[in-house]
Request: fold
Amino acid sequence: MTISITLTTAIALASPGPGAQPTRASAPPTPRQAIVQLQPADRAIDLQAKLDAKIAKNRGYGGGLFRMSSGSDGVLFEGVSGDIDRIGGVPIEPRDTFEIASTSKTFTAATILLLKEEGLLFLDDPISTYLPTDITQGLLVIDDHDYGPEITLRQCLNHTSGLPDYWYDPPYVFWELNAFLIEYYRDWDMFWEPEDLIGYAKDLTPIAPPGTLFHYSDTGYVLLGMIAEIVANRQLHHVYRDLIFSPFAMNDTYLPYREQPTSPHAESHRYEWKLDMYGQMRQSADWAGGGLVSSTRDLETFSRALFQGELFDDPATLEEMREWVFTGDVDVYYGLGIYQIRFDGGIGELVGHDGYGNAWMYYWPEEDVSFTGTLNQALNDWWSLVVWGMVSVIVGD
Reply:
């Protein structure tokens, strides 16, 4: 990686649409700037062009942000593209917040591990040690054997619990919608309690006995959130704040529908194609598996604290988090709330998480570079931008 002095690259935006954004005054279109320290300069221009091309595919439904930083050299790139929402005509800004979706799982996993360090729980305990029987019984019944009470916290963390995912798994009621999704799309104003989500999960087809295979499941993370609340004796958003947000001054990060925003910056809107998901109470169903809102800077702060050993008191905790299981995708592994993407040719690995709506938080240990951002659109693709786009820009391929 070659670093030079700070370079500013002006990038023109597309014309904004009509209307106004309630959280920030509308403004006429102006040239945007990408803060860059990449050399040669054409790499920075290429990186902004990649982001612009991705956001162009959103057709106005979702603006993008990303930030790339080095521990030794500071911000390498901070780019934005598009507007904060479809109708406001307000350009998205680098400090704006966004829904991070399943990237929240890393926060939940870190919270569980911090509670473990406090001696409040043990990862190889069955969930029935902490949760009431009405939650654990009937959760995973296979061949008349109820495995639910036997599932461990570790298996929930690394998605080997055998539990189905209430967001995606069958039986389907209509097309590929299960009973939970039918209700989710029917009632936009419903506030979802964790117990409601577990109730729907119990009616889904079991995947496998615990510990036998990897199957991505938000259900396990709902259970982990419930356990965190029980052992910490306070609501999950308070646990997040006490253990992570406040100690690391993460003032842009909060859990919507459970607490008020803490950031002075506007929140950009996430879309499912043309459907604006901003402010919909039904999004409370994400909770411990994907409910947080954050910013590129807060995600950078968290990922560096996590992967550089500042978050945990015991270095062995991070090593435990990095015990990988194969996901079934080539060169992609999962630990305790984090992915590992392995590269050939001595490039190393990316570790972190991504989420629905194409939000991401990854760290490249070999180069000490963090990548954070969002495309704010479920039907886009972060992979080629982050994994191939950003990495290739740095290594010069």
Observations:
- The longest helix spans residues 41-56.
- The two ends are 11 Å apart (CA to CA).
- Confidence is low (pLDDT under 50) at residues 1-31.
- The longest strand covers residues 3-11.
